[in-house]
Structures are given as structure tokens and as C-alpha cells.
Amino acid sequence: MTGLRLGLISLPLCVVSLPGYILYYTLDKNMPIDDWVMESISGDRLTHQVMDLNLDTVYYFRIQAKNAKGVGPLSDPIHFRTNKGTG
């Protein structure tokens, strides 16, 4: 098992702060979004660490902003491969 630290984009100061984000990730980008793993992230966080990932595995990630009026559109998927590990 391994972890992955994601950096969120920095927003200009003129942008109203968001209450949070929803991070989704999966091994299969074609699965319905309801079947992806979901983690809530506080709006004041600029990084987030996803834990308990498998070694040498491709994960797909999407993110969605949320505020008092609801959630925004989902980002396009991006992918990362975790490290192969040592040994």
C-alpha cells in the first residue's frame, strides 16, 4: 500500500473562498461517478493525501467544487501511477 499527495490549484485572492471540494478516484475511469471512491476536502486545504493505494497501479482522479448552492461541474479525469515500491 502507498499514498499519493495531490496539490490543488491556488486561486487568486479575488475569488471567494470555497467551503470545500469533493475528490473522486477509481481504477476504471469508465465507471459511473457514483461508484468512484469519494473524499471530501476542506476549502482551506491546498493539498490532500490519498492513502492506502496499491503499488504500481494507475488511478484516475476527478474533482468537484462545492458551496452553499451545491456542487460545480466535475473536472476532466487525470491519471497517476503509484510507485513500484522498493525491494
TrEMBL record:
CDD domains: FN3. Gene3D superfamilies: Immunoglobulins (2.60.40.10). The keyword Manganese does not apply. PROSITE patterns: FN3. The chain crosses the membrane at residues 6-27. Residues 1-85 form the Fibronectin type-III domain. Pfam families: fn3. Keywords: Membrane, Transmembrane, Transmembrane helix. This is Fibronectin type-III domain-containing protein. The lineage of its organism: Eukaryota, Metazoa, Chordata, Craniata, Vertebrata.
